[in-house]
Amino acid sequence: MIWHIVWTARGDRMLQKAVDSASQPDEVVIAAEMIERLLENDPLDAGESRDQDDRILFHGPFAVLYRVNIEDQIAAIHTFWRWAK
Which class is 4-82 in CATH? Predict the structure, then answer.
């Protein structure tokens, strides 16, 4: 089963800010694409649960917070950041 991945306006702004401020913007874009692929396959298994309905996924030096809508098969990324150097 393939899940639909969406970026909220906030998540998209955070991703764009990370790309704009990166010394290697391609690294950020590649990580975001990989995160999307991991979530497309199984967002409930890809990350760890957090407060309320939030889940967190780490990939390399980046992380996302996202919410899963099981009924509609959607994972919505609402936060993106670099957590490690």
Answer: alpha beta
